[in-house]
Amino acid sequence: MTSLGADPILASIDGARPVFLIVMGICLVMICWRFAKNTHGWSPRLIMAGALLLGFGYAILLPLYEVGKIARPPSSGVTGSDAEMALACHALRIFSMNMGWLLLGLGLAIHTKVLTSAPRRQPLSTLTSHSS
């Protein structure tokens, strides 16, 4: 019989966090895919690229950090070849999460036409030419 303190309990916060992150990453990709599948142009491409990067970060990288399969960055005291691997995984996580949010936000901004230019107005000279 094992003690409860030695084994991680699935019903605890530490045990449920990786499962929550995996479900959140998959749901994010599915929602973005449903949103972007009937649109055309650059906005669905950017939305899906951002969603896939975020899904990779949330569903794969962050749960591996939570269960301890990937070591924390070298500032936590890890040395040697493990430090190189930890730094590489940390750089991959930072890139995928930040670039994912950037691309997702840019795609949504283009889709909602937030980044379009203002319509051109008629020049004022046409109004003053008829006044004489």
What does this entry look like structurally?
The protein has one domain. By secondary structure, it is mostly helical. The chain contains four helices and no strands. The N terminus is likely disordered. Helix content is 65%, strand content 0%.
What is the count of distinct domains?
Answer: 1
Low-confidence stretches: 1-6
The coarse silhouette is elongated
Percentage of residues in DSSP E strands = under 5%
Largest sheet: none
- The average pLDDT value, as a whole number, equals 81
> In angstroms, what separates the terminal alpha carbons?
102 Å
Helix content: 55-70%
The radius of gyration computed from the alpha-carbon positions, rounded to a whole number of angstroms, is 24 Å
**What is the structural class?**
mainly alpha
The H/E string reads HHHH
Number of helices: 4
Count of distinct strands:
0
Sum up the structure in keywords.
132 residues; 65% helix; 4 helices
Please give a quick description of this structure.
This protein has 132 residues and is mainly α. 65% of the residues lie in helices and 0% in strands.
